[in-house]
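Researcher: Batch entry, complex prediction.
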Amino acid sequence: METIPSILEERLKAAVEDPGPTPLSITSASDSRFGDYQSNAAMLLAKLRKSNPRLVAQQILDRLQVADICSSVEIAGAGFLNFRLREDWLQERVSQMKADPRLGVPSPLRPLGMVIDFSSPNVAKPMHVGHIRSTILGDSLARIAAFIGHNVVRDNHIGDWGTQFGMLLLGWKTILDRSALEQDPLLEMERIYKNVSARCRDDIAVLEKARHELVLLQTGDPENLLLWKEMIRLSQSQFDTIYGRLGVRFDVTLGESFYNERLKPVVEELKASRIARESDGAICVFSDGSHSQEEDVFLIKDKDGWRDNPAIVLKSDGAANYMTTDLATLQYRIETWHPDEIVYVTDGRQQLHFRQMFSIFRRWKPEAAATVRLSHVWFGSILGDDGRPFKTRSGETVRLADLLDEAEERSFAQVSERNPALPEAERREIARIIGIGAVKYADLLPHRQGDYMFSWERMLSFQGNTAPYLQNAYVRIRSIFRKLAEAGEAGEAWTPGAPLRLENGAEIALGKRLLEFGEVLPQVLQDHRPNTLANYLYELANTFHAFYEACPVLKSEGDQRASRLELCDVSARMLKTGLGLLGIEVPEKM
RNA sequence: GCACCCGUAGCUCAACUGGAUAGAGCAUCUGACUACGAAUCAGAAGGUUUCAAGUUCGAAUCUUGACGGGUGCACCA
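Model: Structure tokens for the complex:
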């Protein structure tokens, strides 16, 4: 289904003499008194042509043919064109959208291949609150891209290689507590890692031993390889538990170790093509002078002036680092999936790394770089209510499993208070849906570039822009249909598909709101910003509640009743679908 | 020092990427339950968008400068 702005834009283009390359933007009206949609095209054109905006608007208006769509088009203010939709046309649009399984979301011109790299936990470390944003944001973007019609590869690039394994292996062989490992493998692995790592700092002999273990692993020592695989297995089972609770899945899980064979050739190619060279024993990429100093990611300024800020692709000890791995991974992804876009979902601190990585890639593989969009979708930190990074009361990192437990516990207490009569198992299930949903929604709602303050009270509140509020809107609708089904036994069954009649203000407002879904969703993906979708759903729930208060459904009669039931049904579907795209479930009761 | 991000109502956050009178929730105040779920709705009050200049029909948004905060800057990822 085409969106209303794109239909109006076509009409507008036809009415403009020599529209040029400038897009004629149509947006929904900023104030309903101005109409339903507005365009500032006349003002933009007037600026280009150095003429009067209102005059240009009048010229457009004289040739504009929208009588089948609009009841009025007016020139207002500095030269705005304000469109008011015909109510019969609007009603027809909502009916079409209702019958559309895509709920009015336009099909892409061409389905894109997208690789989304997100979550990326480390082996042998518990997943903690630092992983939550990448996991939830990446999952949501993947769901949205797939719904729109793109081909998505969800790739979990886990940290299963590197210097930490020397310490882990040494710890495993010397201080491992078997029973602790059985009880909580991640906790025990974390303990031995911290223990050895601390001793390495003070004692060069321990450090040497750890390095030796790492060399053994890297040269294929059977025992170390076996232990390493065991660590991965134990970690993966913990990841699976968390991902199961979050409802997150991956198409491929390829750890850093998977790219080992490709690292040396990458470095060789970069050296051969003179992109990288030796410096202080390491192989580095320096500026090629193709950018201004301020924009050059390989330069940095200090008090003595501009100096090199190279990216290291091979350390002086001959080992590769994450830049090398990321380049090899990028090469692999392009060879394997030929994607149109690769999305990296990580925190904002890695901006420089990705800018350097993308820059090296453009120099290394210019043809490939020209056909793939590389997007670093970065996000800010989660803060505690003290404005400092979110920690437990004792100052520890918050483990993700504990966070989810607490969300469900708090939610369970609320559900039990509201609905003590429900069986416990049902209350547990509702609490799970609300608790997990609240955490996800609180994470997706703020603009991703920027820190946000974590607050149980706010995210679990029933009022305001929260998951429970949205879920409640859905539950209220379902309750209507439950009532109807009970009555159905007396011969009042609901038959879907009745014609819509948008008669009063609240019905019309709801209809317009429902149509906006198709406008919002492509933009969400374009900007990689699910918070836009979250805000839309909040407004939808708001508009629905206003309709619900103003328009009795079950107490109305005949065609009106049938029409209102249709509006309820499509609103419920929209809420469920929209929340589903954020990875949030809805309960039937709460 | 340089780069990136941020500074919006008492608090927590939006603002369709330069549009018309900057919007929500919490907290405060007023009103609506013998009621399709009040976990809701209707309303009031709350703003020099940190400050100062500039760009133009028009700025929270762009430019420059100042002030304040976060993050990153050569072998950890």
